């Protein structure tokens, strides 16, 4: 497996487990029955859990772009130091984004998001 695909696998793994903490918070706050049901007036999640849920949604939205670029690069046989670096950078940017968003650190969150976006742009430039 190429380093770019390995980075994609790590990004997918991160995205796949992001929901666990905030869903556990929903269960703790609302109870299992309301957590799996549709209560009329649900109790709110903790603020950190709301932010983590938003970070997860953002990660999934951006995964579409990143995964598409990595798969195009793989199909085209494009792999070099830049593609490897930006794929690794994307993973760490998304990790930092998750942590900063969950903890409510606005500038770090924004810089991490921008870093991930720049990594995608760099990967696109390598493809074109």
What overall geometry do the principal axes of the alpha carbons give?
Answer: elongated
Instruction: Output the CATH homologous superfamily.
Output: Membrane associated eicosanoid/glutathione metabolism-like domain
As a percent range, the share of helical residues equals over 70%
Query: What's the CATH topology name?
Result: Four Helix Bundle (Hemerythrin (Met), subunit A)
Give the integer mean of the pLDDT values.
96
Structural class of the secondary structure composition?
A: mainly alpha
Distance from first to last alpha carbon = 23 Å
Portion of residues in beta strands equals under 5%
Write down the CATH class.
Mainly Alpha
Task: Compute the number of structural domains.
Answer: 1
How many distinct beta strands? Answer: 0
User: Which value, in Å, is the CA radius of gyration?
Assistant: 17 Å
Number of helices: 6
Order of helices and strands: HHHHHH
Which stretches are poorly predicted, pLDDT < 50 over at least 5 residues?
none
User: Architecture, according to CATH?
Assistant: Up-down Bundle
Biggest beta sheet attributes: none
Structural overview:
This protein has 128 residues and is mostly helical. It has a single domain, classed as Four Helix Bundle (Hemerythrin (Met), subunit A) (Up-down Bundle). The chain is 84% helix and 0% strand. It is built from six helices and no strands. The chain is elongated. The chain starts with a helix and ends with a helix. The mean pLDDT is 96.
Topology:
Blueprint: H1 3-17, H2 19-30, H3 32-36, H4 47-76, H5 81-103, H6 106-127
Helix pairs in contact: 1-4, 1-5, 2-4, 4-5, 4-6, 5-6
